[in-house]
Amino acid sequence: MPKDKKVAFLRSLLNQWVMDSKYVSPLEAVSYVKSGDTIVVQGSTSIPMVLLRALTERASELRDVKLISGFGVHPEDAPYANKEYIDSFRALSIFVPNNLRNAMKEGVADTIPCFLGEVPSLFRSGQVPVDVTFLNVSEPDEEGYCSFGVSADIAFSGAECSKTIIAQVNKYMPRTFGDPVIHISKITAMCRGDEPLVEVPTPVPNEIETKIGNYIAAEIPDGATLQIGVGGIPNAVINALKNHRHLGLHTEAITDGVLPLIEKGIIDNSQKKILPGVSVGSLILGSRSLYDYIDGNEQFVIRDVAWTNDPQIIRQNPKAMSINSAIEVDLTGQICADSIGETIISGVGGQHDFFYGSALSEGGKCFLALTSKTAKGKSKIVPRLAPGAGVVTTRFQAQYIVTEYGIVYLRNLPLAERAKALISVAAPEFREDLERAAVERFGIGFLRLK
Length: 450
Description:
The chain is of the alpha/beta class. 30% of the residues lie in helices and 19% in strands.
C-alpha cells in the first residue's frame, strides 16, 4: 500500500476510534455540565434542543447554570427557561430568540444589551467567561471534521473559548465552508440528534412592502454589496433588484430570498474587495431547499460574527448597502428596533454594525425601512419614542428612512428639517398631529419651514 494511502487509512481508523469513544447518550453528554457553569448555546435554526432537553432533566442536580443564546428560531419554548427551574438555570440572551420571549415576559429570562459583532470579544477577553458550548453539528467527514452548518455567529467564539464542547450530531445539518468547523478531537462528548432544522417561510411581499422595496432598489447602484435582513420588506427589495448587475452579498443572515439573484448571476460578488467571488454571512435561515443548496457549496462562506459584522471589514467593500427595519422612528430620527415600549422582543443584532460600516464605505448607504402604520393602525413615525423604548440606531447615524409614502434622507438635515421630512413619509392621517408635535418641540424653527 502506498505510504500516503496507508497514512490516510490509519488516520481514518484513529478518527473512527475517537468518534466511537465520544458518542454517548444525550443525558451522558450533558453530565459534563457543573453547577455555576456558563453555557453558550448555538442558534439560528439549529438550536441544539436534544442537549437542552437533556440538561433540563438534570435541573434538580444543578444550581446557577447560565445559558447564553444569540439569535435563534424554534417552535418549542426553551425547556430550561421555566419558573420551576429558576434556581437551576439562568436564561440570558444577546438577541432574544423567539423561544425565550415568553420567559422574558415572565421575568424568567434576561438579555445582555450588546452589539452582536462585539459578543465574541466578551468571550475572548474573559469579561463573560465561558465554560461550555452546546453545538448542533453535521456528521463528521472522513477526516473527522464536523461543520456548525447554518450558525457560526456567537457559537464559533463560544467553542473557541470553552473548556468543554458538547455536540449534537445531526444528519440534517448541511456542511458549510469558512469558520464553523471543528474536529472531533476537540469535542468533549457527542450524541445523536437527528432533528430537521427549523424552516423559516419566505414572506411574500404585499403591495405596501413592494412600494418600499422599489424605493430602496432605485437607490442601489450596480456593483453594490448588500446587507439585507429578514422579512417582507427585504424580500421586496430583492424582488426589485432583478435588473441590477454585479451585486455582492456580505450580510449577517443568508435567506432564501437571495437565491434567485445568485442563480441568475445578479449577485456574482465580482466587485467586492473582501472575499470576492463568494457570498458571505454569519448564519443561515430559511427552507430545506436553502440548506440543501448551501450544503457543500463553495459559493458561500460562513464566518464568525465578529468578522462579518466588523465595521472596518464592512467598509472595505465599495457601495456597501445596509437595509434594516424598525418598530418606530421619532421626529429627530431616533430608531427603535428591539422593543415595543419596555417589552424587549429582539436585540440590536447587526443593525448598528452594518449602519456604521456602510456609512464608512465609499458610496455606501444605510436604509431604514418600515411601513407607515402598525397592524393596529398606529403611526410608526412618532413625536417621541414610546416610554421605555430602546434606541438601537441613533439620530446621528440615520440616513435614508423609507415608508410606502416615499424615501427621505436625514443625514445632512437639522432637527426641524428632519421632522418635516419624516412627516412627509408618515401616513397622511397622522401628519397634522405630527406637525403640531413638531411645532411644540421645535417652535419657530419648524414653522419657518411651512
